[in-house]
Amino acid sequence: MAVGGGGGVRQRQRGCSCAKADFFPEESFSSWSAYGRALRSTGARLADRLTSRSLESTELHEVRARSGADMKRDLTWWDLVWFGVGAVIGAGIFVLTGQEARDTVGPAVVVSYVVSGFSAMLSVFCYTEFAVEIPVAGGSFAYLRVELGDFMAFVAAGNILLEYCIGGAAVARSWTSYFATLLNRHPSEFRIHASSLSPDYSELDPIAVGVIALVCVFAVVSTKGTSRFNYVLSIVHIAVIIFIIVAGLTKADAANMRDFMHFGARGIFSASAVLFFAYIGFDAVSTMAEETKNPARDIPIGLVGAMTLTTALYCVLAVTLCLMQPYGSIDPDAPFSVAFADRGMDWAKYIVAFGALKGMTTVLLVSAVGQARYLTHIARTHMMPPWLAQVHPRTGTPVNATVAMLVATAVIAFFTDLNILSNLLSISTLFIFMLVAVALLVRRYYVSGETTDANRNKLVACIAAILATSVATATCWGVDVKGWVPYAVTVPAWFASTACLWAFVPQARAPKLWGVPMVPWLPSASIAINVFLLGSIDSKSFMRFGIWTAALLVYYLFVGLHASYDTAKALAAESALTAKVEEGDGKPAQDAVHNGEYSREM
């Protein structure tokens, strides 16, 4: 994709090149003087991008065309269900269950899984409506770009990429832990200790890097081939989970559940925020909409079916673990393997470790496929270098984006401790899911040119009130406010805000193919729960999140803003020229250029 000298947009037909024009083809980067002029226009350009929203047709056609070759439509609901199961069931259940049950929540870890699963299911509904209506590889980035505009989409995009890199790194490090168990060794024996580094970054993990490299090879060869490999592994994985449940329950001791809520409600919600990590991955399925044969049928079945099965299995597995051992004796690194060994079934730990390795492998595979498609669509908008948007004409896969994301994942996996990864990952994911729920409310209640100013203002006020009351509730919880009085104010205020939206603002759009039920209640509940879980995460994780978001904003103001602005204006100018030729007058040109990339003013 390049911006031509005449302001038009043309496709690069060459393969994987690395010239400057492949990374920075925009006018603003043509010379240092041009870049200086662009920087001086940062304020005006930022104002334009803050109020500009992309159109669905732009995401579905013009933006998608910037990859050159099309992705192959090979996937069915069957593929999506197993992609969903493969993406989700991995390190979360096999590692974090033990960590949280022992240190944070006790046997009530099953309740924490229910809370996290309920929140995840609400997000699944929101994602499903968008994926059916806008079936492109960009996932939540494309949805937010259409409804909340370029700037919010970019902030979310950076956190999406962080989510995938950290998630893949966490799973890869867990892969090493269970591989060590399979060989009857301690994980530290397979890691290199670098005493000169901080303790949280000193256990170097070369095995994790090797696993990520192998996954990269699978992901770039074929999406359909990856799918087949994934559901074979996933079926074996489900068989191992059934074995764990049946064999574990034969060693159950109900006495281990007596001190059920030892850490109280705070422990339940604190664990829920971390265990949300165990549900991360289903959003990768929405990025495959562009490769799905029948998105309107296949995506709802795939997403909802996978999440329902996953939640049920998580809850049963959590109960099984807590029945096998007192929560204080649960091993934080390999809880199920050690539990079987302690109950006299030492041989069973090898089956558990084998199953865990298979589950983590499928998580890495699906993550590799999903993260590359996110990055591909982001690069199509030129917020990231368009070199990353190229789709290989033979394999029909985004090779450059896949390799780039997995290199970043491997670097993080090599250095960083799992506990840091899981907390930071949960923040990014909960933040994105909250934004998608907000975007769904905007989609249902606001249509540019149709919604009156009065209704638009009421919508903004209601959404602001929903967010404010959700943040107030989460803040009270996060700072450990004593008593029930603050919640008696904030929770009814949230309910009243949602009721006002339901009663006083008419819906401006009905879903064409599949829609979230009970709007605005379910999206509003998704916002409240995601924000509440954010309030249960430790302060150091928020500091890391803030540093990352600040770095994103610096990149956006100095690079992404100018690249996407030039691309939008060039595409609008080309569209205007085409319209002028077809219609025989210049009127469409003025309309097209005014709002940029087929965009709408909020």
Question: Pairing-aware structural class of the strands and helices?
Answer: mainly alpha
Instruction: Kindly report the spatial arrangement of strands forming the biggest sheet.
Output: 1-2
Specify the biggest β-sheet: 2 strands, antiparallel
Shape: globular
Number of helices: 23
* Rg value: 24 Å
The low-confidence runs, each spanning 5 or more residues with pLDDT under 50, are: 1-15, 578-598
Distance between the termini: 28 Å
Q: Care to count the β-strands?
A: 6
Q: Helix content range of the residues, please? A: 55-70%
Please report which band the strand proportion falls in: under 5%, 5-15%, 15-25%, 25-35%, 35-45% or over 45%: under 5%
Describe the secondary structure blueprint for this structure.
Layout lengths: L1 E2 L5 E2 L9 H4 L8 H9 L1 H10 E2 L2 H10 L11 H12 L2 H15 L3 H25 L6 H8 L2 H33 L9 E2 L9 E2 L1 H16 L1 H27 L14 H12 L7 H4 L8 H30 L10 H8 L5 H33 L18 H17 L2 H28 L7 H26 L6 H20 L16 H14 L4 H45 L3 H8 L5 E2 L1
Helix pairs in contact: 3-22, 5-11, 5-14, 5-16, 6-12, 6-14, 7-12, 7-14, 7-18, 7-21, 8-9, 8-18, 9-10, 9-16, 9-17, 9-18, 9-22, 10-16, 10-17, 11-14, 11-16, 15-16, 16-17, 18-19, 18-21, 18-22, 19-20, 19-21, 22-23
Account of the protein in words:
This protein is mainly alpha-helical and 602 residues long. The chain is built from 23 helices and six strands. The strands form three sheets. It has a two-stranded antiparallel sheet. The longest helix is centred in the last third of the chain and has 45 residues. It starts with a strand and ends with a strand. The relative contact order is 0.17. The N terminus is likely disordered. Pfam families: AA_permease_2, AA_permease_C. It is found in: Membrane. It is a multi-pass membrane protein. GO terms for molecular function: L-glutamate transmembrane transporter activity; L-lysine transmembrane transporter activity.
